């Protein structure tokens, strides 16, 4: 039996075939199924809603698009699709693709990304930590409400974990929160949030 590797896609092929399908993202030419479930989408929606309330309360010129891809400029075959992304509206006119596609290329446009962990947790805890830090995104949230991540990331025994990665000198400093802990976001310091508030019913 011979092994046939999956066909690699370019960014342009991915946009043409899967750009409107929120199930998929592209990493180094490989199509990744994000495997969204109802609880996963509920948690992502809850996060977006709580951030929006804080954006309005603080009168920030930020927005949360319904769907959005990140195309790192140095990666020709990668299109990341965060569960929640917060954009600086003033920076959007510097985005080369934004007027035609909901695609962000410049890290300076992005204030925050949040990923809700699913079975492909390795991407959220490893690859995306590097990608988002390289883009200089100030804050990255990893919301592991089912405790799926590897023990090296969330400990043993594995428990629901909310990780805030804050960019310091180009590297993310990570702080973990468990159920019951008040979560502190350096980017949104007045946000009142606990992991308990995000857990699906």
Structure summary, number of beta strands: 10
Assign the structural class, choosing from mainly alpha, mainly beta, alpha/beta, alpha+beta, or little secondary structure: alpha+beta
Mean pLDDT over the residues:
92
* Secondary-structure element pattern, one letter each: HEEHEEEEEHEHEEH
Helical proportion?
10-25%
How would you characterize the largest beta sheet? Answer: 6 strands, mixed
Task: List the uncertain runs.
Answer: none
Assembly annotation: single chain
Ends distance = 46 Å
**How much beta, percentage-wise?**
15-25%
Please, how many helices? 5
**How would the global form be characterised?**
globular
Main β-sheet, spatial strand arrangement: 3-5-7-8-9-10
Radius of gyration from CA coordinates:
17 Å
InterPro entries: Nuclease_put_TT1808 (IPR012296), Restrct_endonuc-II-like (IPR011335), Uma2 (IPR008538)
Domain Putative restriction endonuclease: 11-195
Protein name: Putative restriction endonuclease domain-containing protein
Organism: Planktothrix serta PCC 8927
């Amino acid at each position: 039996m011979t092994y046939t590797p999956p066909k690699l896609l370019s960014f342009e092929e991915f946009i043409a075939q899967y750009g409107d399908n929120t199930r998929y993202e592209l990493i180094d030419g490989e199509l990744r199924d994000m495997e969204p479930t109802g609880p996963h989408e509920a948690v992502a929606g809850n996060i977006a809603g709580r951030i929006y309330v804080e954006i309005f309360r603080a009168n920030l010129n930020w927005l949360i698009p319904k769907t959005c891809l990140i195309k790192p400029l140095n990666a020709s075959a990668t299109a990341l699709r965060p569960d929640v992304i917060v954009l600086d509206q003033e920076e959007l006119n510097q985005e080369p693709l934004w007027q035609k596609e909901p695609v962000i290329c410049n890290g300076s446009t992005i204030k925050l990304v949040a990923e809700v962990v699913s079975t492909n947790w390795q991407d959220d805890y490893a690859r995306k930590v590097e990608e988002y830090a390289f883009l200089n995104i100030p804050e990255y949230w990893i919301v592991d409400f089912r405790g799926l991540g590897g023990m090296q990331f969330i400990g043993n025994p594995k428990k629901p974990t909310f990780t805030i990665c804050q960019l310091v000198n180009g590297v993310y400093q990570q702080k973990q929160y468990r159920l019951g802990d008040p979560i502190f976001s350096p980017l949104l310091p007045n946000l009142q949030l606990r992991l308990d508030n995000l857990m699906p019913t």
